[in-house]
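Quick one: structure tokens for this chain, please?
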Amino acid sequence: MESIWILVGTAATIGFVHTLIGPDHYLPFIVISRARQWRLSKTLGMAFLCGLGHVLSSVILGFIGIGLGIAVSQLEKTESTRGNIASWLLIGFGLAYAIWGLRRALSHQPHVPPPSPLKERLNPEPRSDHKLLSQSHHHEAERLYFHETKEKKSLTPWILFIIFVLGPCEPLIPLVMFPAAQHSIGGVILVTIAFGAATILTMLTLIALSAYGLSFIKLGPWEKYSHALAGSIIFLSGLAVQFLGL
């Protein structure tokens, strides 16, 4: 029984380190939530669901392997293949999002609606800069309202969820297989909970702290490039995972 508790502590430690050194576990949520101005509760809720899917997909694969008597080495090859697919999807998503964000920023033009001919006839005095600015801000508020309405139908959260479900937890497989070989279902459950809890809590903590820090950073006129910047960071994190093994 003592060996199981040692394994549980090891699983929690590995889950923490595995998440900390893997930028794909938290960077996408940090930059997307900043660019799309998500509430912290929404960001953490989305990260929790993605982290849960991330862990459970490997748990299910591990149980299938246990049931079919598949060797650990074969399961690890399967996890490696899943990892390649997930990292390339992250790279593709980041690149596509960066291009979309750049096009969106470059096409953004402040618009001042033309004056009404009837109103001009009734009120012929020249329009002040204050009035022009007020109308521009009103139009911008309307544009943001429609943007937020469309945001509710965004596919971005679902894309992140799919990528996380496909992303493997490679260290979890050998950890689960040890108590499984001893026919200890309780040990399998404890190890899985320890690893999963450490992984998800680390994700949420890093995201919350980063969101708090970024709330003090104002991009000013560069704010319109926030989506392009977010996509670029996701793209780079995907490259780091794929080619640096992070």
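Confidence is low (pLDDT under 50) at residues 110-114, 116-122, 135-152.
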